[in-house]
Design brief:
alpha/beta; Rossmann fold; six-stranded antiparallel beta sheet; 24 strands; about 40% helix
Length: about 700
Amino acid sequence: MTRALSQRETAGRLLQTGDRFEVEVDREFLGEGLLALDPLFPPLPSSLRLVRGGSAVEASYDAAQHAIVSPCLTALAHGGRLLQIAVASESPLTLELLPPERIPSPEDLMSLGPRGALHDLPVDPGDMEILRRCAEGDFSRPDEHRLHEQAVCLALSPGFQTLVAPAHARDLTPYRHQVEAVRRALGRFRGRALLCDEVGLGKTVEAGLILLELVIRGLARRVLVLTPPSLTSQWREEMIRKFGLEFALQEAEGFRAGGEGAWKAHDRVIASFHTAKREAHRQAVLQAGWDLIIIDEAHHLRNRNTVLWRFASELRSPYLLMLTATPVQNDLDELFNLIQVLRPGHLETAKRFEENFVSRSDRLKPKNAARLQDLLAEVMVRNRRSSTEVALTRRHACTLQISPSPDEGSLYADMTAYLRSCFRAPSRERAPHDPGALDRMSLMILQAELGSSPAALAPTLAKMAARAPEHAGKLEAFRDRAAAISRPAKLERLLRLLRGDGLDGGLDADEKLLVFTRFKATQAYLAARLREEGVRAAIYSGDISRLEKEDAVKAFAGPVRVLLSTESGGEGRNLQFCRALLNYDLPWNPMRIEQRIGRLSRIGQEREVLVFNFSAAGTLEASILHLLDAKINLFELVVGEVGMILGRIEEEAPFEDIVFDRWIASEGEADFQRGIDEFGDCLAQAREEYLRILEREDQLFGDRLQPGGKD
């Protein structure tokens, strides 16, 4: 008899000859002539038939891609993100398996020994008796049939020394150190691990592989990922693209509309840990029942006297991953606090830990270091760049000085003076509820657009003039001046860079260039101007569909020379086929700059990366660029390190707020420069502290916690 099962319902089932499956997938899984199956879908025989009614079309199964391959596959969109796969019509597609499959007997299960997944799990002898009765057709006890199916799936899976997840990951070839970290975390640590690789070695990849491994084996269905607010979208993008796993974002409108019940309604959720800890969500998160919890940037839990640490210590799940590149920053007690969340009691009590391992003269220097390393080796993985095969190519950063035209220079100076005067106006004029006010956010937007392009500035000035009648006259005058600038100096310098005249840092003629801008209006303006100049450019922004994003990247990889991207292109896209990047305008948040660079300068890039920065003298962006380059050497840091440095500064306020507040409150450029120099000294000190932490952690951990041998 033919059994009709959905793709999700086949998870953990043993396939048999004659089984048929209706398949419906997200468009992310679909390619021309190829259907990438859900990771939960079992592996198929190599020979298949696509069946509709009485007719059949030959197809094949590609194990490497976990996909069905046939030139007859066509996609019919049905709104949203779902597509129905069909063969030359709109009828549902079914899959009929040709080779025979055999269900293992209980004897088979019990004879698998250490090679089967049952060897990695505690199995009660009574459970094996249940399996024996199930195999004989006796399902008199509740849930025995499901238990039998799960046991079959587990027994047919190899132990954790043989991983199945890497074969199902996409656009990803794991490094050996990542695979060994996954094996240790799942095998020796039983899925509860502190992943502490140095920055740039791919802790997120390791966590994703562990997650996918547990999902495929049927060991984790409900998953919660907790991250800093700035990383939620990046995590979601990476989980979709590399592992084919969809997550709901807590910050998304649909999730929030579901209220507290949404935490249980969605099986996979990504949320800011600051949001999750709030009283409004806390109990719902704690009671949702998770199989796996992943906490990124776990060093935020280093203080056990905080609300966040107490919240994390109350989370319950069989599997827990905590990711951080700097588990110790100020005191060895921080290490104790992290491990207390992961495995309570592993280091005994806080008092006993201090007595046994913390030196009184230097709280970062351990007593009994060898014994401490033995204990850490039971819960912690730390790979070092010097001990792996990962080789990151060099970066070459080039600041391109822009000489604004007289009209641009006077507009910048006059608007800057006016915005500062608005900030110093009586608070009544800046109150958020006052429709005539130019509030702080409005001032920030205007100043940022002023540094980007007249095309971005002019329409915003028009909107604000309509909303703030007290300022309408001035704003409209500024709008008219901005609209009159048709060929800004930045555009001319971009065209010169694309011509490859040999004066701009080594960009070859016809070499591809990734151009970042903060604003869609600037992006649209550049696209139109480049088209007029005969330069082919693709558009990448956050408001286009996923398929349109894929098409833009494919075009950029092919005949298109320039990709014009907003900040969304700085998240989750690997563009290593290109090596040159231009910051057409500069984000005030250094993490955004790092994300941009990380699209090119990352694992897999084989060439030196060129980073070009436009800088106009006397502008806020030029001051930020000088600050980041001179004080922390931003462009020489490994992707991820700037966050480690800024984390020591931004506990009081975000970087961009600190800079903007100093700028808007200053009496003039000289006064602002004095303030920015003081802030630069704080940044330089934070960088030195970060380097000191790295040196101490090398002394503390060494290579002892780097996996590589057999567990």
